Amino acid sequence: MFHGVRGSTACHSRDTQRYGGNTSCVSVDIGAASPIIFDLGTGLRYLNCDDLDAQPKPFVGVCLLTHLHWDHTQGLPFFKSLLHRDTVLDIYAPRQPDGVSLHDTFIKKISPPLFPICLDEFAATINFHEIGDDDFEIGTTKVMSRFVPHPGPTIGFRVTANKTTVTYLSDHQQPLGNFALTAGARELCQNSDLLIHDSQYTPAEFATKSNWGHSTLEFAMWVAETTSVKRLALFHHDPSRTDDALDVIAGRLGQIAKNRGFEVFVAADEMSVKVSAVVS
Ligand SMILES: [Zn+2]
Ligand SMILES: [Zn+2]
């Protein structure tokens, strides 16, 4: 389920209310007790919380965090389940080049004067796991993590469970010249049943923001086609992108994707998608 689909910053206006304005957060329900969470953007506030006024519910589960930029971490101190003492959240995130632990890096951001209380003061237990180019398992779910191009250490994830694969590449720097993929990014995407990919810019926007770390809609389409994915979710929408503009994108790229042999859709807050392996 998509809880937040925006990139860079949360936004709210009449023009963005249908697709939503929360930043990156996606949960993958694989039939286990708790879903796997991709990223901790502002959409996290709505996870495990049917009623924002209700008492906090415990959550025991895993977050696969692509990187530490604000739009991917800002929801953490607003995750209501952190107020419950039985909550245990394991966060897997890229190790930092300065050698500072993930815990200490987060504490610098979630503590006074930048936040009213320190992250360690929440009732929940939060465990950090430093990763890089790795292959590991969470229960029976296989996880592949690979560094991808983006400012600062950034990881993409490929998760496989029940013979079904979901790949999450939320922030991905498109090459400045011809379209190309790093070996790691190709490994992540190849033959995925669902690819959730950065599609922040139009070509015109990319021309003026080409080193800001993101992809165009056209590059996301090329990645999906060249790695033979079944479905592509356009994700990490620019906060300036209106609902009407996203409708036009969905219509235009939907037909192009069909001609190229895959499906495409525009991700929206609160959208649920059922993913299953296509047997052919
Ligand atoms: Zn981002
Ligand atoms: Zn980023």
Commentary on this structure:
This protein has 280 residues and is of the alpha/beta class. It has a single domain (2-266), classed as Ribonuclease Z/Hydroxyacylglutathione hydrolase-like (Metallo-beta-lactamase, Chain A, 4-Layer Sandwich), CATH 3.60.15. Helix content is 19%, strand content 24%. The chain contains 6 helices and 13 strands. It has helices spanning 70-73, 102-109, 183-189, 203-208, 217-226, 243-260, and strands spanning 2-4, 25-28, 36-38, 60-64, 88-94, 125-131, 134-138, 141-147, 155-161, 164-169, 194-198, 231-235, 263-266. The strands form 2 sheets. The chain has a 7-stranded mixed sheet with strand order 7-8-9-10-11-12-13. A hairpin with a 7-residue loop joins strand 2 and strand 3 (36-38). It is globular, with a radius of gyration of 18 Å. The protein starts with a strand and ends in a 14-residue tail after the last strand. It binds zinc ion (ZN) (2 copies). One zinc ion (ZN) binds at residues 7, 24, 69, 71-72, 170-171, 236.
